[in-house]
């Protein structure tokens, strides 16, 4: 089945009691049992909810996996994956990733005695160099946030398998329309469904998808025990978002391509970070494992001062100054003071995330208007 057809039909079964084509929002906390222990598969809504079940079915299908789990946020999904580990275990993560993931790892889980290594995963030797008998998980984000670095999922997966290590890929930036990490050998795919899956900046939610039934049982047990479940209304919204994912992503890619090239040719712009440029160091990997390059990009200005970046950030009219990404509307962001403020400045700069870096989430408006807006703001 082609992706567009799959996105529209995934998980959608007419409601058996009414025939409603859309899965109803089952706004209930509990389910009546006909006798103690005799029920219809639903006992208590932290454990099961029919709206969530339909969404989880859809999540599995769109990532070419067997099982989906929906969480109350992207970081709740990440939290569940790290809870597979125990004190003394080690994780190899990227050195350029979502700031909230870094905060969760370094400020919460390190206190529980889990050790994290942060390496540039573009070069697989950097990963191999820190593997030891305690390494239990590789955490890969590709393309990365906000510098659009790329990691070779198939190569990392081969290395992980040789060493009996789990590989989890944060696929938020690419979305399942552009990249399917399970097909490339990853064990778990993670999403902040808040972004492209929801697609309309109106919901916070996360997802995990996997193939191994034992891993699914462990993660479901953690979810049920720790309680980070999404409400049924939010599940309904994410399911609705998924139905148009392919159409939105096609437009995000088209607009992204045009804006990346516009910025690159702009005399006041120093560097544009976008993995669709043929001279981007990860281009060949991106081309191999992605169906398109998406609408996320970052750039720096020739006048590299924070003041100049602030001037641009506060001048756009269509690009709204906000955290988050992946919605239909275009957003502009200053990672150093917004999404990545939780990363120490020294660490940030060392990895290329400078004070004046500006990140764009290019939306699906008419691209001429978006270019006009940037032209006016950059000057
Ligand atoms: C937003 C985001 C997260 C966290 O997801 P929330 O839904 O905000 O909890 C994780 N990874 C990436 C790449 C993100 O963009």
From TrEMBL:
<dbReference type="InterPro" id="IPR015421">
    <property type="entry name" value="PyrdxlP-dep_Trfase_major"/>
</dbReference>
<dbReference type="InterPro" id="IPR015422">
    <property type="entry name" value="PyrdxlP-dep_Trfase_small"/>
</dbReference>
<dbReference type="GO" id="GO:0005737">
    <property type="term" value="C:cytoplasm"/>
</dbReference>
<dbReference type="GO" id="GO:0030170">
    <property type="term" value="F:pyridoxal phosphate binding"/>
</dbReference>
<dbReference type="InterPro" id="IPR015424">
    <property type="entry name" value="PyrdxlP-dep_Trfase"/>
</dbReference>
<keyword id="KW-0663">Pyridoxal phosphate</keyword>
<keyword id="KW-0808">Transferase</keyword>
<dbReference type="GO" id="GO:0003962">
    <property type="term" value="F:cystathionine gamma-synthase activity"/>
</dbReference>
<dbReference type="GO" id="GO:0019346">
    <property type="term" value="P:transsulfuration"/>
</dbReference>
<dbReference type="GO" id="GO:0019343">
    <property type="term" value="P:cysteine biosynthetic process via cystathionine"/>
</dbReference>
<comment type="similarity">
    <text>Belongs to the trans-sulfuration enzymes family.</text>
</comment>
<dbReference type="InterPro" id="IPR054542">
    <property type="entry name" value="Cys_met_metab_PP"/>
</dbReference>
<dbReference type="InterPro" id="IPR000277">
    <property type="entry name" value="Cys/Met-Metab_PyrdxlP-dep_enz"/>
</dbReference>
<dbReference type="Pfam" id="PF01053">
    <property type="entry name" value="Cys_Met_Meta_PP"/>
</dbReference>
<dbReference type="GO" id="GO:0004123">
    <property type="term" value="F:cystathionine gamma-lyase activity"/>
</dbReference>
<protein>
    <submittedName>
        <fullName>Cystathionine gamma-synthase</fullName>
        <ecNumber>2.5.1.48</ecNumber>
    </submittedName>
</protein>
<feature type="modified residue" description="N6-(pyridoxal phosphate)lysine">
    <location>
        <position position="195"/>
    </location>
</feature>
């Amino acid at each position: 089945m082609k992706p567009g057809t799959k996105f529209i039909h995934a998980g959608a079964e007419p409601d058996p009691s009414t025939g409603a084509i859309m899965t109803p929002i089952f706004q209930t906390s509990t389910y009546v049992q006909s006798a103690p222990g005799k029920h219809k598969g639903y006992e208590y809504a932290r454990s099961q909810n029919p709206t969530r079940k339909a969404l989880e079915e859809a999540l599995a299908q769109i990532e070419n996996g067997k099982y989906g789990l929906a969480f109350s946020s992207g970081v709740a999904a990440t939290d569940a994956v790290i809870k597979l580990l125990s004190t003394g275990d080690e994780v190899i993560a990227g050195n350029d990733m979502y700031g909230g993931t870094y905060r969760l790892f370094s400020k919460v889980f390190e206190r529980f005695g889990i050790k994290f290594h942060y390496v540039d995963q573009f070069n697989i030797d950097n990963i191999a160099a820190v593997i030891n008998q305690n390494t239990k998980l590789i955490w890969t984000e590709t393309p990365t946030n906000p510098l659009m670095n790329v990691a070779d999922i198939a190569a990392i997966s081969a290395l992980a398998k040789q060493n009996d290590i789990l590989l989890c890929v944060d696929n938020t930036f690419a979305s399942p329309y552009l990249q399917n990490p399970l097909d490339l050998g990853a064990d778990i795919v993670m999403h902040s469904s808040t972004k492209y899956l929801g697609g309309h900046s109106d919901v916070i939610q996360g997802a995990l998808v996997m193939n191994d039934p034992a891993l699914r049982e462990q993660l479901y047990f953690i979810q049920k025990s720790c309680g980070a479940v999404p409400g049924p209304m939010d599940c309904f919204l994410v399911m609705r978002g998924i139905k148009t994912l392919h159409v939105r992503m096609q437009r995000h890619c088209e607009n992204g391509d045009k804006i990346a090239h516009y910025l690159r040719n702009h005399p006041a712009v120093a560097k544009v970070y976008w993995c669709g440029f043929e001279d981007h160091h990860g281009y060949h990997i991106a081309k191999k494992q992605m169906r398109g390059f998406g609408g996320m990009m970052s750039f720096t200005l020739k006048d590299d001062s924070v003041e100049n970046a602030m001037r641009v950030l506060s001048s756009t009219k269509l690009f709204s100054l906000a955290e988050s990404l992946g919605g239909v509307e275009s957003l502009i962001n200053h990672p150093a003071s917004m999404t990545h403020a939780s990363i120490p400045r020294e660490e940030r700069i060392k990895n290329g995330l400078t004070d004046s870096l500006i990140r764009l989430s290019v939306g699906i408006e008419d691209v001429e208007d978006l270019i006009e807006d940037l032209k006016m703001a950059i000057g």
